[in-house]
C-alpha cells in the first residue's frame, strides 16, 4: 500500500448565497464618478468584498452609471456582472477581476458616470468559481449516520434501523485578508459567520489526495500521480475563533455543518467536457479559459 501524508491535500471553496434577490435604487447622489464609487441601500453583511454579483435595472433601462468601458462589448446594457469591493461606509467599487476587487485599489476598477435619474436595481450574488483556500494548516470532516431503535417486545436482541446522515467539521488556516493569485482567504469564512441577510453558506471540496501528488512511500504506480480524491458538500459556517499569541502566526479555526449530501468523489480518468450542439466546449463565465466538465466521477 502507498503511504500518504496530510500535505497532499487541499480545500477548494465556492462562494454561495441563498439566491435571494435584493432590490434597491441607485440615486444620482449615490454615484461618485470621480472616485468610481457608488452605493445603494442594503443591510450590512448582504455583500462581501470579492462577491461576483449580477446587477439588473428592474425598469428595463440601462445601467447608465457604469461607463461603456465596464462592459465586455463596450455597450451599456440593463444587466451586468462584476466583482465588488465594499468599503467601511458601504460604498461599492466594481471590478472584472477577483484579486483586484479584494485590494479595492484603482487598478482594474470599473469607471462610473454621473446620472440624472433614479435607477431601480436588483442584485443577486452569482459567484460559481472554486478557489483554493490559502494557508490551510489542517481540516477535519466528521460524518455520522443516526439510527432508530425498532426493538419490539419479545425480541432477544436490540434492532436498529439506519436513518439520516449528518456531517460537521472544522478547519484551521493561517489568517490573511488579501488574496494572492486567486486564492480565497480564511478571512472570508470569518465574514460568513457574521453574514445574516443571505446566509453563511459555502460549497467545499476537501481533497484527500490532490492531482499531481504521489505517495510518500510504499507501493504505488506512476499512473496514480494524476488521481484526485475529495469530499464535496454544501455547508454553513457556524463559528470562528482566532488565536493570537506573541511570536506566533495568527491562525483561525472555522467550524461548519453540512447542509446536504456529502459525496466522496474520485477522478481517476481523463475528464470529459460537456459539449454544445456544435461540438465546442462551454466556457465558464468568470474564466473563459476553463470549461464545463461532465459530472460523472463519484
Quick overview of this protein structure:
The protein has 298 residues and is mainly β.
Q: Can you walk through the features of this model?
A:
This protein is mainly beta and 298 residues long. It folds into 2 domains: 2-14 and 131-267, Elongation Factor Tu (Ef-tu), domain 3; 20-126. It is 5% helix and 38% strand. It is built from 2 helices and 17 strands. Strands 2, 10, 11, 12, 13, 15, 16 and 17 form an 8-stranded antiparallel sheet that branches. A 5-stranded antiparallel sheet has the order 3-9-6-7-8. The protein has a two-stranded antiparallel sheet with strand order 1-14. A hairpin with a 5-residue loop joins β7 and β8 (92-95). The two termini are 22 Å apart.
Itemize the secondary structure elements and their pairings.
Blueprint lengths: L1 E2 L6 E6 L6 E5 L4 E2 L4 E2 L13 E6 L21 E8 L5 E4 L2 H6 L15 E7 L4 E3 L3 E14 L10 E15 L11 H8 L7 E9 L7 E2 L9 E16 L7 E8 L4 E5 L31
Core attributes:
298 residues, five-stranded antiparallel beta sheet, 5% helix, globular
Global Rg: 23 Å
CATH domain topology of the largest domain: Elongation Factor Tu (Ef-tu), domain 3
What is the CA-CA span between the terminal residues?
Answer: 22 Å
> In this structure, how is the largest beta sheet organized?
8 strands, antiparallel
CATH architecture descriptor text of the largest domain: Beta Barrel
| Beta-strand percentage range | 35-45%
Number of domains: 2
Count of strand segments:
17
Shape: globular
> What is the class of the largest domain in the CATH system?
Mainly Beta
Give the overall pLDDT as a whole number: 83
Amino acid at each position: 500500500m502507498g503511504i500518504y501524508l496530510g500535505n497532499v491535500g487541499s480545500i477548494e471553496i465556492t462562494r454561495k448565497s441563498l439566491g435571494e434577490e435584493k432590490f434597491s435604487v441607485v440615486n444620482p447622489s449615490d454615484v461618485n464618478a470621480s472616485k468610481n464609487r457608488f452605493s445603494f441601500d442594503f443591510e450590512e453583511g448582504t455583500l462581501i468584498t470579492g462577491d461576483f454579483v449580477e446587477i439588473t435595472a428592474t425598469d428595463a433601462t440601462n445601467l447608465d452609471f457604469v461607463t461603456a468601458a465596464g462592459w465586455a462589448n463596450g455597450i451599456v446594457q440593463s444587466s451586468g456582472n462584476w466583482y465588488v469591493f465594499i468599503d467601511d461606509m458601504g460604498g461599492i467599487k466594481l471590478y472584472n477581476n477577483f484579486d483586484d476587487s479584494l485590494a479595492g485599489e484603482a487598478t482594474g476598477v470599473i469607471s462610473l458616470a454621473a446620472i440624472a435619474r433614479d435607477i431601480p436595481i436588483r442584485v443577486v450574488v452569482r459567484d460559481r468559481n472554486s478557489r483554493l483556500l490559502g494557508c490551510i494548516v489542517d481540516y477535519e470532516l466528521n460524518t455520522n449516520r443516526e439510527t432508530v431503535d425498532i426493538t419490539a417486545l419479545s425480541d432477544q436482541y436490540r434492532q436498529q434501523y439506519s436513518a439520516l446522515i449528518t456531517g460537521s467539521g472544522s478547519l484551521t488556516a493561517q489568517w490573511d485578508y488579501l488574496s494572492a493569485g486567486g486564492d480565497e482567504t480564511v478571512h472570508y469564512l470569518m465574514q460568513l459567520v457574521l453574514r445574516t441577510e443571505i446566509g453563511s453558506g459555502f460549497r467545499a471540496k476537501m481533497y484527500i489526495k490532490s492531482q499531481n501528488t504521489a505517495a510518500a512511500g510504499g507501493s504505488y504506480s506512476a499512473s496514480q500521480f494524476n488521481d484526485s480524491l475529495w469530499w464535496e458538500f454544501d455547508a454553513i459556517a457556524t463559528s470562528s475563533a482566532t488565536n493570537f499569541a506573541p511570536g506566533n502566526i495568527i491562525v483561525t479555526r472555522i467550524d461548519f455543518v453540512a447542509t446536504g449530501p456529502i459525496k466522496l468523489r474520485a477522478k481517476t480518468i481523463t475528464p470529459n467536457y460537456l459539449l454544445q450542439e456544435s461540438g465546442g466546449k462551454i466556457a465558464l463565465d468568470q474564466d473563459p479559459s476553463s470549461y464545463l466538465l461532465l459530472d460523472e466521477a463519484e
